[in-house]
């Protein structure tokens, strides 16, 4: 500024000088911004890989009225003259503009140029990406900006997996995109063209272009040199960790090892072993391969920083993301080409146009003058002692200008990865969201009971199954096959927390009510519990706890058939309303069916245990009653035997019932209650003994009595015997008939007052159809007909005897003999010729052996061919055989009584090897089959088709030893068929669709009436048959699956019992004429 040639210039002269040199041609820097006439003066630029560039430019203009806002966001172009005379473009957008001041009619402006990518940092967004890989997510973000379209490209060498769930939460698009690229090992640089710049995203240094020219000398910079060079060059090494280790937790494979470790393979000198161990959160990588890649990305970022090279000079072709070859440097000439190739990671440039007015412009505050002075001093272009520049002529006269560049590089042969400089956002705390799912659904979940939600901040979600990923739900207890399950329903508001604050890892931790989803029990605070909702319905299940004072209550309720268990103080409850008093205690009720099952025994008692004290099966009151009943039955049985009557054989079972009620179980040593700090210690409590049933009895006990009532029928079925013992009376009252059908014998014994048998109307018939009848009295035997006759008739002989005299009627003869006087008196005595009286005698039916038809079917109605069976007959004999191809067989010549049939496994389902019949007979032969879906039909028939129909054999439950209990004819299950049925009208049948044809109680009453009519008609048509019940199999039992080898042959009927079995009643049947 002290040059005498310029000291006399006035402002107007300065403008004139400026107008003369207005052209930018052949200058170091050119600048283009729309139609503005702006001349670049100074330039400071910062570039780095994976960072937006920033160029600050001081420009001058002779106009001071340029609106700054007209410059903002406008595309601008800087051109830097190269050594060959061409220009290298640098394009960007004006990020800021400032008017620094005016001097001599020259206006000084400062502009800052940035890439379009920087504009993405101005906004902030929150959104969710699902099932997209990193490039798809980045592209979706960039495509949301009009300025980015067509201004980016991907140049990748690796494939990238899809991310199931990726969240941008309250962060700028710029921060979000950088965060993803850093995690995946991507980096970017900018490629500049004549009119624009392009963002290039890559994952390999091999895709980076070479600068032009590629070779750059390490040489002194001089104005006489034809090529640019680097004048300074040096390396820098920094210690880095030698290992990177990662760990994560994959809840889908919780036991799968997830640790990943990667060691450096670069020679970094004698470094101590140091490790970077990080747990970046759950589900950071799904598998080992993915984890290795993420760990390698981090390790390569460390290895890249371990050795860097720095240079400076005037090489104007250098740009970030480009690589060059350094020549003429002694330290790099000895190795191969990889020793001389470098990738530019960052640069800082300082440039100044040599304008004629430069020396006469004041240094304005905020200009780049100070930064350029510092750069010149750093590059050895310091001012002289007199304050003038060593290269003053270059800056004060029109020349090529000044250009300085500082660069940071790494070897091109090393991978480059950006460090994790953009951390993920940390969620400030839990949020609430709404459970969503497909339209029309109420529940949308998966195998892990996860659900999907719509976050309140998600403006792009559609409140459907695509609004989020599957979110796990925290339950009060959760483990393998056990724990609590309450799946949130669509529409519920849930509390969502985030593991380690990671927006990509949401977890549902609770549920809350709101204005639309209100609680059922509210306001008073007395009611608590759980209430569900029927899927696609208005019903529910619930568990209610009522904590009203002195009215404590629990209700377990299912709206299906109003099935409830009510405990405590029972009231009517409707929603939130506590209603009227209903009682106290407990109530188990349902509008449908009910069942109570106890595998080892059941006690139903109204004997009290106040205060919930005492043992579970305290049966002392019941035992006393059973013991008293047994003593009475035993004494009466002994008395019956003394009088030649039958003993009460079932009294032994009564004694067993009494004895089995005295069982005990548990440990003999009692222990005090343990309140230990560990489960093992606390488990030592609960010792001692308690009452139990020795066998699975059903015990009913009551101090006031037991009443059984029904408007219909009551049925008692026993496999062995029925014992009824009363200390006082047994009274039977029947409105119509008392019918008993007994297979073996009827024995009545009265100890004191005798037996009375009266028929107010109708006949009294007593028959012994196959044996004698004996009437014996210690005193008088009276036979009286008060209004008619007494007839005594016999087929062979009638004998009246007393005191040695007798009257015999036999073969048409009458014998009257007496050891004493025969006194015959009458008003007349007629002794004529022979005559006779033909008196009809009843033709008594015979008991004939019967047949039994077997049929074994699967549940689908298909037969079980070739199945083995074994039948236990009433006389104790056993028959066995094999079913035919239709699953059928016939047993003939069976004695009267029950038959138990056992079926063995389907032979097609076992090994094809020689087999023999089981030698050991099962203790409880059953009808059970090899699969639960088989069924059996059995039919009986008479052997003699000409004789009157006989009762078919009875198929009963396990343990049956004989006898035919009465009952109505079988109407379902077993089929009854016989070739000996008499011809006539068909037997009445009961329609099976009565319950479905007539609703409710009406159908039940109609069926009952039809059953009574059918029974009466059956008795009229088959007077000798009686009501014999043929019950179909249905009991449970063990099924032999591996027959025992023995001496028995595999031949049907090989072990059939002879018809003259000792169990046959009355011996061999007699043939009647």
Automatic annotation (TrEMBL):
Location of the Gp5/Type VI secretion system Vgr protein OB-fold domain: 444-513
InterPro entries listed in its UniProt record: Gp5/Vgr_OB (IPR006531), T6SS_Rhs_Vgr_dom (IPR028244), T6SS_RhsGE_Vgr_subset (IPR017847), T6SS_Vgr_RhsGE (IPR006533), Vgr_OB-fold_dom_sf (IPR037026), VgrG2_DUF2345 (IPR018769)
Record Gene3D superfamilies: 2.30.110.50, 4.10.220.110, Baseplate protein-like domains, Gp5 N-terminal domain
Regions of compositional bias (Low complexity) in chain numbering: 668-683, 945-959
Sequence segments annotated as region (Disordered): 652-688, 924-1073
Domain Putative type VI secretion system Rhs element associated Vgr: 534-640
DUF2345 domain boundaries: 687-834
Compositionally skewed regions (Polar residues) per UniProt: 927-944
Tree of life domain: Bacteria
Family stated for the protein in its record: Belongs to the VgrG protein family.
Identification of the protein by name: Type VI secretion system tip protein VgrG
Organism: Halomonas sp. RT37
Gene this protein is translated from: vgrG
